[in-house]
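Box 3.1 A note on notation
Throughout this textbook, protein chains are presented in two layers. The first layer is the amino acid sequence; the second is a token string describing backbone geometry. Keep the layers aligned when reading.
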Amino acid sequence: MDFQLYFNPIDKESLCFFYSENENRIGNKIAIHTQDAFPDLENIKIALIGIEEDRNAFNNTGCAQAPNAIRKQFYRLFHSEQMPPIADLGNIKIGQSVNDTYAAASEIIASLIENEILVIILGGSQDITYANYMAYQNLNHVINITSIDPKFDIGNENIPIKSDAYINKIILSQPNCLFNYSNLGYQSYLVDSKEVELMDNLLFDMHRLGLAQQDMIDSEPIIRNADMVSIDMSAVRFSDAPGNKNVGPNGFSGVEMCTLCHYAGANDKLSSLGVYEYNPQEDIKEQTAMLIAQMLWYFIQGYMQRSNDLPDIAKSNFYKYYVSLFDDAYQIVFYQSKTSHLWWMEIPMEEGNNVKFNRNYIIPCSMKDYQTACNNEVPERWLLTYKKLK
């Protein structure tokens, strides 16, 4: 695939960034698509792509201007350690219609993932998540999506796709490659009770903002189970990220969002991250752009700490624990990595079940799940996945 045909180069002058200022700035450490050259992707591990698309934005026109505003802040940051090879491919050429943009984006993302390059998408409106999902569908990859969003954005099959109504398009697309959808940080007063009921019926994960903030480490297994993560910047409270027409007074703090991005970067299976709904027109002193730049910094920091220590029965890279429940009526198998000390648990599958999944589906969990099982209770995370696999 000739990627250069799909991208507009980056204009250094417009970013007001002086590359000669300091060689340790990120802008001097990554390969950037300019008028002079397109990056060689042979050894690249992470690719940034901008998508200046907001024609389907709900009440947030102007977020198409986000990619370069984010770059302006991201390039200026310092990285103290050896960075992985990163390329900024520029901004995708916008299609004549939004669907044309979706098609181009999904084709590009699929090709990058197929070449084992992790993709960071700088939106644009959050409906681009649908194009991101279509890339995995094109590759026939069964995936899990985690969305950090104050709402579910489900929508209705009878209305056109919008940034606040795109999940239904993913659910109804065929052939469907979505195994699980998790929402992290929803705010109850912004969500219709019928949507909560629908999420329940679909066996999707819902995690309220307040509960997530009580102990951020509980969110780590949710993100570690994701193949792609979609971030709506309205999930961050106004005081920390004012650059969004739909932002409210409550939400994650900037520190908490950086923590979540660090978890995402450290996730061995995650292959794409999208940051959406940042609107430079609404920003105050570029505060939101600075926060997103720092979120990307923490994501890369997490990526550098990947340990590739997923449980493997052929290796001895983990401890294995058997927990019996209800007088030995049931047994749950837990794994703990000897390297990262992270936890997983095994979900048994019946013979002849969906061949898309392993015979024993191993999902990320926390020490709390192990402790719950030791107290003779079935962890909710285990039960929800078991129901999906039946």
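The two ends are 40 Å apart (CA to CA). The longest strand covers residues 178-186.
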